[in-house]
Design a protein that fits this description.
Elements (H helix, E strand, L loop, with lengths): L1 H16 L7 H14 L12 E9 L4 E3 H11 L6 H16 L7 E2 L7 H18 L6 E9 L5 E9 L2
Parallel strand pairs: 3-5
Antiparallel strand pairs: 1-2, 1-4, 4-5
Helix pairs in contact: 1-2, 3-4, 4-5
Length: 164
């Protein structure tokens, strides 16, 4: 009897969690069993992101490079490669950067060291570039693009001629 219950339980969980149409007939039948006690969504582990970031960097003599994409790709390819700490530090610094913004407008930003949140982002980017290129980046331009989920708000800040 216990084996039969466990078998039906696992079939119900699989039918509920299997990707597909929400109005599938089997999901309709297992929903009353699963939802009150066994339902999970991804926000149980991590809150749903409200912002997406891109950080584009152009070093003198090179093309634009999306730093977040670069770090994330290297982390996905090799989980033990040491890129997780950089990725977490940069994403956290970008969240602080976006929370300190008073106006959500695109534009060229002053590079006068008055924005401490940008200074932290810049230091993380410099550290990553030095670890990759084994040399200090001469001069660089940085574009920070912020897109809010569930909103039409989308803007970019351009820092020209950033020097450490």
């Amino acid at each position: 009897m216990l084996i039969g219950y466990l078998f039906l339980h696992f079939i119900a969980v699989l039918a509920y969690a299997f990707p597909g149409k929400e109005e599938h007939k089997l999901k309709f039948y297992v929903f009353p069993y699963i939802y009150p006690y066994f339902h999970q969504n991804w926000s149980m582990f991590v809150p749903v992101p409200t912002q997406n970031f891109n950080v584009y960097v152009k070093i003198k003599g090179e093309d634009w490079k999306d730093i977040i994409y670069d770090i994330n790709s290297k982390h996905q390819a090799n989980r033990f490669g040491g890129n997780e700490a950089t990725l977490l530090a940069l994403s956290s610094a970008l969240r602080f950067y976006s929370s300190a913004i008073k106006e959500e407008k695109s534009g060229i930003m002053p590079n006068d060291r008055s924005n401490i949140n940008f200074e932290v982002v810049k230091k993380i980017i410099n550290g990553y570039l030095i670890s990759q290129n084994k040399k200090w980046p001469e001069g660089m331009d940085i574009i920070i693009q912020i897109r809010y989920a569930n909103s039409e708000v989308n803007f970019a800040h351009y820092y020209k001629g950033v020097i450490e």
